[in-house]
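Q: I'm a student working through a structural biology exercise. My instructor gave each of us a protein and asked us to get a predicted structure, then write a short paragraph describing it. Mine is Helix-hairpin-helix domain-containing protein. I'm not confident about reading structure output yet, so if you can add a plain explanation after the tokens, that would really help. Here is the sequence I was given:
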Amino acid sequence: MKRAVRSYISFTRNERIGMVCLSALIIILLAVRITMVYYVHPKHNAEEEQKLRAAWEVFKRSQPKPISDSVRNEQSTYADKTSEDDAPLPSIININTSDSETLVRLKGIGPAMAHKILAYRKKHLFKKVDELLDVQSIPKGTFDVVKKHLAVDSSKSSE
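A: Happy to help. First, here is the predicted structure for Helix-hairpin-helix domain-containing protein. I'll explain a few features afterward.
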């Protein structure tokens, strides 16, 4: 009988370890709860709260206001247009005498494409404006935009 009661009331080693861990956890949580009242309560930290609010206001004022995508795109487009408009285009550019800087001023022609045009011109001079389509990687759309500014006549100068 004693043995039956003892086996009914006694705990195994794993059960004792579990109870000790749970007891330690409860004690730690109670200690945190008791000490947390002092640190969280606003009447104890009014001074720190004022400092944090002042720092937050300074931070909010220092951040730039968000810009919508449409305004951002308009600004970048405007910046691109002003850089293109810095150097006015001549009315007609002679492909056979123009340099890369003059070609780059044309809309749709970048430095790489201007270099390809000059390399093609070194091999053989242009006889017609339409031969510009023979230059590698010049799209038809770009050609249609720039062809009104181009000529192959040797009597026209590039500037």
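A: Here are two points you could use in your paragraph. Confidence is low (pLDDT under 50) at residues 155-159. Helices lie at 2-9, 13-40, 46-62, 69-85, 100-104, 111-123, 140-146. It's a good idea to check both against the output above yourself.
Q: Great, thank you!
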